[in-house]
Amino acid sequence: MRRLLFVFVITLIIKFYSFTQPVVFPLNNGDYWEYNFIKATIIGDTVLGDGFSYFIQEQSEGVYRYYAYLRQAGDSVFLDKKLWYDFSRSPGDTIATYRFSHEGLTRIILVEAGIDTFFTFHSLRYWRFAIDLEGDRFYQTVVDSVGIIKYVYPNPNVTPIELKGALVNGKLFGEVTGVDEISETHPTFMILQHNYPNPFNPSTVIQYQLSTGSFVTLKIYNSFGQEVATLLNEQKPAGEYSVPFNAENLPSGVYVYRLNAVGNNQTYTQSRKMIYLK
Q1: Which of residues 90 and 212 earns the better pLDDT score?
Q2: What is the pLDDT of residue 194?
Q3: Which residues pair with 122 in a beta bridge?
Q4: Span 186-276 CATH architecture
Q5: Can you tell me the mean pLDDT for 92-96?
Q6: H or E segment at 236?
Q7: What is the CB neighbour count within 10 angstroms for residue 102?
Q8: What DSSP assignment string belongs to 100-150?
Q9: How far apart are CA 147 and CA 27, in angstroms?
Q10: For the whole model, what pTM was predicted?
Q11: What is the pLDDT of residue 27?
Q12: 8 Å CB contact between 173 and 118
């Protein structure tokens, strides 16, 4: 009986100590998450319209690319300038309520918090959030120092998105395969991709790839042909790249971004248009 009581008391102490430590929602350049359907990577950072610096997370699903802007402030995590997670709250608390014109009313609720084992790592804190969207309820589970590990849809026939592994700040959780593939594979040709999102406000991401080491310049021009920004002017090895662009201090309008790459007796120049709408 005394032994059982001792174990119980120690368990309570561990839980109390764990939940008084700062929460880490991993946001480091190069952090990588591999899910059953999606891969996500932190590719850089930018300053949004609220004046804060956000990390850019690129999410890839096949040929499609999506971008999320994230920052942590204490126990709070913001997604695209909106409060999304608050780890200081108690289960049952409403974190935030938003009305999106194209989706209706969205409410975020903390439904569960605890400690469990994930990827053989013991005593990791987790939080389960519900996202209510006009009668439908989605669930997201966040684990301390790992990130989002599960996303459950309201339709039980839709397979949940589940984390298979992650490489966070140099620490491996579970198993990943994409990191090695990316590091060992070089593009076979030069290309400048369309920026995303487009139209944008105030930030967007420009992607390009190099088949050989090149000196790269990436510049932005307004509709009058005047240069308004230089994003790159340096030597780059072969590979795929993403460059954030923030137009907060520029007027709305049509802009042109132009890539010029010179290397190994090759010259590549390409321009594309993008629209900035405040």
Answers
A1: 90
A2: 84
A3: none
A4: Sandwich (2.60)
A5: 96
A6: strand 227-236
A7: 4
A8: ETTTEEEEEEEEEEEEEEETTEEEEEEEEEEEEETTEEEEEEEETTTEEEE
A9: 9
A10: 0.63
A11: 92
A12: yes
Q: Where are the domains of the chain?
A: 2-183, 186-276
Task: Tally Cβ neighbours within 10 Å of residue 4.
Answer: 8
Amino acid at 21: Q
**41 contacts 57 by C-beta, under 8 angstroms:** yes
Nearest Cα neighbor of 11 from 81, 115, 87 is 115
Produce one character per residue of 209-220: b if its CB has 16 or more CB atoms within 10 Å, e if not: bbbbebebbbbb
- Over residues 51-68, the mean pLDDT reads 83
Q: Is 26 exposed, middle or buried (0-12, 13-18, 19+ CB in 10 A)?
A: buried
Cβ atoms < 10 Å from Cβ of 167? 19
Residue 162, pLDDT > 70, answer yes
The better pLDDT of the pair 254, 135 is held by 254
Q: Which residue has the tokens 């049509």?
A: 254
Name the more confident of 179 and 55.
Answer: 55
Average pLDDT over residues 50-79: 87
Dihedral sign (CA 231, 54, 70, 200):
negative
Burial of 240 (0-12, 13-18, 19+ CB in 10 A): middle
Q: Give residue-wise pLDDT tens across range 68-90.
A: 889 999 999 999 889 999 999 99
